[in-house]
Amino acid sequence: MGMRHYGLMMVAMGGALVFPSASLFAHPGHVHGIESSELASGLLHPWLGLDHVLAMVAVGVLAVRAGGRSVWLVPLAFVVSMFFGGIAAVNGLSLPGIEIGVVASVLALGLLISMSRDLPAQVAVATSLLFAWFHGQAHGAEALQVASFAAYSAGFLMATSALLLIGVAAGFWLQSLRSSAGFRVAGGAITAAGLLVIASLF
């Protein structure tokens, strides 16, 4: 299977994670009342913040950039760490400076994509674990306002997985260009977008 076809498959898998939940909203017999609302909220939340979208797509690109086992280890590490970061926040164990950590993740991931060629899998996974925790904390703080954390977390985990798979697909497309220039440009664009997000905070 070529890189192009593999990338298309990853995008399709991302869509498959999102669209079944949308069908649940359309058929309230499967999900009732509050739970349906919380699932929808969790599903939409990661898409509504530019910093979240940029970081999650960047993690997918970085996974491909690192290569080898990182292609699946890095996104998996992100999802697991984000989930437990969210649980910690719901239970009152929040780190200070969560929003700073989220924005810093965009900058750091963009720089890693643009500068790293042979990034060790351990470094890529550790980076993913660290920054995912901040994103999980942010999602967990949002979850304090909902009635069903289980439904909300199911939604944001599906949306996050979709964004990560889109990033992986983008990474394979950049790799298919057979030039590191594509990764440098993509990393630079992500970093620049992160700087714009920072500027918007002031």
> Which structural class do you get from the secondary structure elements?
mainly alpha
Q: How would you sum up the global shape?
A: globular
User: In DSSP terms, counting alpha (H) and pi (I) runs of 4 or more, how many helices?
Assistant: 8
N-to-C terminal Cα separation, in Å? 47 Å
Element pattern in H and E: HHHHHHHH
Mean pLDDT: 81
| Structure summary, number of beta strands | 0
Q: What portion of residues belong to β-strands? A: under 5%
What's the gist of this structure?
Helix content is 83%, strand content 0%. It has eight helices and no strands.
Topology (elements, then pairings):
Layout: H1 3-26, H2 33-48, H3 50-66, H4 70-90, H5 98-115, H6 121-143, H7 149-176, H8 180-200
Helix pairs in contact: 1-2, 1-7, 2-7, 3-4, 3-5, 3-6, 3-7, 3-8, 4-6, 4-7, 5-6, 5-8
Descriptive report:
With 202 residues, the protein is an all-alpha fold. The chain contains eight helices and no strands. Helix 4 packs antiparallel against helix 7. The N terminus is likely disordered.
